[in-house]
Write a structure and sequence with these properties.
The protein is mostly helical. The protein folds into 2 domains: about 60 residues, Arc Repressor Mutant, subunit A; about 60 residues, no CATH class. Helices cover about 50% and strands about 5% of the residues. The protein has 6 helices and 2 strands. Strand 1 and strand 2 form a beta hairpin. The protein is elongated and about 60 Å long.
């Protein structure tokens, strides 16, 4: 399950992609109001997205946020990992955040193969889904 923070990040990126014209910045207050996201929470999310170079912020009267990447280049797998971390449901099947389960032997585990399949299908769907494909 993705966090509310991650859901809000996706909604904010979608809003920017759908409403930004020729690089014109959009104020976070507008995004918060239109997408029903708490303003302070959105500012934190946008700051994180700025740090991973998905959005850029501009100050002043003509300031706001703009996408640094084209919607076709922003995959859900990247957004989810930036905001929430691992996509896999178990640490022992994670590709980027692997950690062994303390209570089991991976060679004999009957749970791991099922969750590897879940991971693979989830990554296939999320990896093939871009912000552009959601517009």
């Amino acid at each position: 399950m993705i966090s509310k923070k991650c859901k809000y990040a996706i909604k904010a990126i979608l809003y920017l992609a759908n409403n930004q014209t020729e690089g014109t910045p959009i104020f976070s207050t507008e995004i918060a109001e239109k997408e029903n996201i708490p303003q302070k929470f959105l500012e934190t999310i946008l700051r994180e997205l700025r740090n991973v170079q998905i959005v850029q912020s501009r100050r002043g009267k003509t300031g706001g946020y703009v996408l640094l990447k084209r919607p076709e280049e922003i995959k859900l797998t990247d957004l989810i990992r930036f905001i929430d971390g691992p996509i896999a449901l178990l640490p022992c099947v994670s590709l980027n955040y692997y950690a062994p389960c303390a209570e089991c032997n991976e060679q004999d585990c009957k749970i791991k193969p099922v969750f590897e399949q879940v991971r693979d299908q989830t990554l296939r769907i999320l990896g093939n889904t871009t912000i552009a494909s959601m517009q």
